[in-house]
Amino acid sequence: MDAALTGFLDILISSGGLFVAFYLMALGHSIVEKSGILNLAIDGMFALSATLAFFADVYYGNDLLKSFLLPAVVIALFGLFMAFVLTKFPVSHGAVGLSLMFLMYGLSSVIGYGPRIVQATMPNFSPGVSLSLEERIAGYLTMVALSIFAYWFIEKTKIGVSIKASGEDPAAAEALGVNVLASRLVAAAIGFSMIGFGGAAYMNFYVRLWDERAVILSGYGWLAFSIALSGGRHPLVVLLTSLIFSMLVHSSLQLVAWYGISRELSYSLPFIVAIISMTIYMATPLRRLLASPKGLGRIYFREERTV
Amino acid sequence: MVSIVVVRRVKPVPYFIVPILALLIGIGVSIVILFFLTGYMVQPMDVLVSIWTGLTQPNVIANIFLILTIVGFSLAMSFKGGLYNIGGEGQFWMAAWMIVWLVFTTPIIVSQTPLVSKLVALATGFVAGFAWGLLAGILRGYVGVDEVPLTLMMNYVAYYLIDWLVMLPGRPWRDIYGYAKTRSLPQTLQYSIIPGTTVSVEMILVTIVIGFLIWLILDFTRLGLTIKIHGSNVNLLRSAGYSVPLTAALALALSGGFIGIAGILYLCGVTPSIRIPVETTTSGFGYLGILVTWLSMLELFAVPIAAYVVSSLYNAGFTLMAIKGTQQAGVTAGVTNVFMGSVLLMYALLITISEYEIRIVW
User: Fold this and answer.
1) Beta strands in B115-241 (DSSP E)
2) Cross-chain Cβ contact B348/A96 below 8 Å
3) How many domains does chain B fold into?
4) What residues does each domain of chain A span?
5) Residue B159 belongs to a domain with what CATH number?
6) Nearest-CA distance from A275 to chain B in Å?
7) Cα-to-chain-centroid distance, residue A110
8) What residues form DSSP beta bridges with B7?
9) Cβ contact (<8 Å) for A304 and B7?
């Protein structure tokens, strides 16, 4: 029993960096989707933000401030663009999201290659920092505090309620005096920059290397998508689903040792669990309890409109 | 004050305008991106030459073109039903894997005449792709799971599953020299390439037959009609007494089945073994097919045209690598994604102008 508990705590602590990354991405994604914007670009955003963090690490001497700010600003700009066109024009959320995802994969590939070559000439350099035990615990506590703040922001503030109203029924919200465009732009600025922070946290606190498999082909952005979905986009519930997935991903290689399953199968496990969790969410009362915004992904615009 | 006025057009613009514009502007955006991100190493002329090389050498891109045409036809089937099947990759590779497994565990498959063996291989691919698509279809139709993340995640599951299966020790499909790949398919299943090209007669015939079949299904069968109604008015379908979940499941499954045949063509006509890790060695036809389908505006007759253009763009990525070199300019295979993303984004934005007029009023 003690051994099991110790093992659990070991995984909990050692997956701290990944937990921070997943939670930031899933929370940011939740805020964006609460405003009614379907964000199918999340995996590309994850790849690009992790790549930009790596870029900043290599070229700015592991300056964490720059390494977090650069991806946050770039992803927020993409997000603001998304929010604007999806609110002002009759454009498909899915089509814009997916195309941005592919574009960001390409950008990540082109941007990441240069610093990787440069890194090869820096023998003792690793991007990011190796977190101590205290820092990992602080990471968990910070995310708990952030979840409470995010809950308060969305549920109790005027702008939070406006964001939710824009996601539920933008036409009705606008009729009641809510500026849907402004609300969505605020949600996009906050949410997408958090996704950028999440990608930077993945690079700086967890994986600490750049290659196409670890960043562009990992699919972890999609895991963040399903973390948010199965947590009902609720800041406090998403905390729990982020914890489960970060531990699952981190321990997947340990499953190889514990149960003798293959490395490849262990890689697939988080995706299988993600599919199962999405299925459980849709097939159970969770779907009603933690319902998606009614206007999520629906084309909203008014003919003859003014900025 | 600046005003953006969106007004519905009385008469939509001709449908071919949008994809052509999207293509031209998308390529322009790609040129700008590559120019700046590679530190001016990739000049606009390099990109244009790369694309032109593909466009003017049909014999080189022919195999990619045929496979993308099939994937494009297949995706059009589900897209017409309003179902975004992003899982083409998984369906493609599961079918490819299934024929490898069958060939090396059931030798009777290849002991028949070549024609029978090849037909069995195609049928196997269809069944495998159909089954993988049906899994997503059931979850989409009967449980309501969003098909986009679902099919995408199933791609990753398929990749890792195949990586695992290929490397299982002691299995008859393992490469005898220990490389990370399967053994090559027997000669009876491999297609003979037409000299001077990259395609075979079988690939051409199968592509034509699949295009014809999908056209028949969509335009002349009740199933096709229900799929199309599913894409435009689910409530109408329900009120007419048809099963909405079953229609969704079948649309995704059929789409997967035909993509599975593309997987078999790839294995029998392009490369006779599966290399792993699949996720890093894949050509990404399942994703490129999305671009083909969107650019075709879901019109079946336009799918081959779109596939030809996308094949050229795909080839351009590799030509650029050859011209500039990865070491010098950092041009990797990911450049294809820059082309693809830019063109898709422009398409997604410009499709609006086909039905709406956008005026900026000062």
Assistant:
1) none
2) yes
3) 1
4) 17-218
5) 1.10.3470
6) 6
7) 22
8) B357
9) yes
